[in-house]
């Protein structure tokens, strides 16, 4: 991939190239052929100013590093386009208030809504109402219950996170069949946690390993420290730990430091900047982290703009924006950390 293409990616190098919405890697002759292409067909001019697009954005409260990064990246992306006006609702974990925010966007007759719902099921009816009003809805991260609630859905890959973490640990174990692997999950009742654990279990099984010790936290620093302390007390020997979330990982690493133990390594989850800096230092037990992109809202802005302007994704032959886009869950190590630090969030 050329340097010019990499520059346009939301997740440098490994996010779907389609999201770049341009064709800087298209040969010059092909660009000339596309100059007269009909509306909706890739023309290589997707980033040029076009029809004005008013986009409403609503997401949960930024009470978590990843969530805060979602909103920050979304606002930064909108500012890149002179033809985009982004209306940002205050982040909230109150479902009724978020429903009211979407109702306000409908009344304002925005062109599109980029919506990361606190509760996908609860926001489904009002999202359908927006679509029926002719407003393009882009669903981010937490899925609605109906395909009629959104034109396009952008997702991270929760199961893929587990697969990536497990595959990396398998590689690091180098055939050690008696390796003791531990897992510090997030909130067990959430489907995303269950998907991450399932992917991790399947990847380990592929190399003859299993999760020997497992505890669950609550995606917070305090819960991470408590869960890790309990794990370390119950497991006198460990070879590797996968922690689902880098925010709760701040507490996890505090508990590990307090224990004085160093016989294992740790793989993080989500891709925070502080974890990446620890990986880069080479002096931490943190050896890797698995990305869960905090750029999904920014991707949503790009896609909403394309949809309203009736454009296609520049690097696809398909003349319509896909209904579902799932972003990749790459593993960040000391070898590639510099590639991912620019888009990482602070825990």
TrEMBL record:
Main localization is other
| Transmembrane intervals | none
SUPFAM superfamilies recorded for this chain?
A: Periplasmic binding protein-like I (SSF53822)
Query: Which domain of life does the protein's organism represent?
Result: Bacteria
| Residue span(s) of domain Periplasmic binding protein | 55-311
InterPro entries, alphabetized? Peripla_BP_I, SBP_2_dom
Asked if the record carries the keyword Ion transport, the reply is: no
Subcellular compartments: Cell envelope
Keywords of the record: Signal
| Keyword Ribosomal protein tagged | no
Gene Ontology CC terms, in alphabetical order: cell envelope
Q: Where is this region: Disordered?
A: 28-53
Signal peptide bounds = 1-20
What GO molecular-function term can you cite, just one? carbohydrate binding
Q: What does the sequence similarity comment in the record state about its family? A: Belongs to the bacterial solute-binding protein 2 family.
Q: Which PANTHER family match?
A: D-ALLOSE-BINDING PERIPLASMIC PROTEIN-RELATED
Q: Would you tell me the protein name for this molecule?
A: Ribose transport system substrate-binding protein
Organism (species): Kribbella steppae
């Amino acid at each position: 991939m050329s340097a010019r293409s990499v520059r346009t990616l939301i997740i440098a190098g490994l996010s779907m190239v389609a999201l770049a919405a341009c064709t800087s890697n298209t040969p010059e002759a092909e660009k000339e052929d596309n100059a007269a292409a009909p509306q909706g067909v890739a023309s290589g001019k997707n980033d040029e100013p076009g029809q004005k697009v008013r986009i409403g954005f609503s997401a949960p409260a930024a009470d978590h590093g990843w969530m805060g990064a979602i909103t920050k990246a979304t606002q930064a992306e909108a500012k890149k386009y002179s033809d985009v006006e982004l209306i940002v609702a205050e982040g909230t974990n109150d479902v009724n208030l978020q429903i009211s925010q979407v109702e306000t966007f409908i009344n304002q007759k925005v062109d599109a809504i980029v919506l990361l719902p606190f509760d996908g099921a609860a926001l489904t009816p009002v999202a359908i109402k927006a679509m029926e009003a002719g407003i393009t809805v882009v669903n981010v991260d937490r899925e609605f219950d109906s395909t009629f609630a959104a034109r396009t859905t952008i997702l991270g890959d929760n199961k893929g996170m587990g697969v990536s973490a497990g595959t990396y640990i398998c590689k690091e174990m180098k055939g050690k069949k008696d390796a003791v692997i531990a897992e510090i999950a997030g909130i067990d009742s959430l489907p995303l946690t269950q998907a991450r654990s399932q992917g991790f279990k399947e990847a380990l099984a592929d190399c003859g390993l299993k999760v020997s010790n497992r505890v669950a936290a609550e995606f917070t620093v305090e819960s991470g420290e408590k869960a890790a302390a309990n794990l370390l007390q119950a497991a006198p020997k460990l070879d590797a730990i996968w922690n689902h979330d880098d925010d709760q990982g701040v507490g996890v690493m505090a508990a590990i430091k307090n224990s004085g133990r160093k016989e294992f390594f740790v793989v993080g989850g989500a891709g925070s900047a502080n974890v990446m800096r620890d990986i880069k230092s080479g002096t931490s037990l943190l050896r890797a982290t698995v990305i869960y992109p905090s750029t999904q809202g920014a991707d949503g802005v790009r896609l909403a703009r394309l949809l309203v302007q009736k454009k296609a994704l520049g690097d696809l032959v398909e003349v319509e924006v896909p209904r579902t886009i799932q972003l990749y869950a790459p593993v960040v190590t000391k070898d590639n950390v510099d590639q991912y630090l620019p888009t990482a969030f602070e825990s």
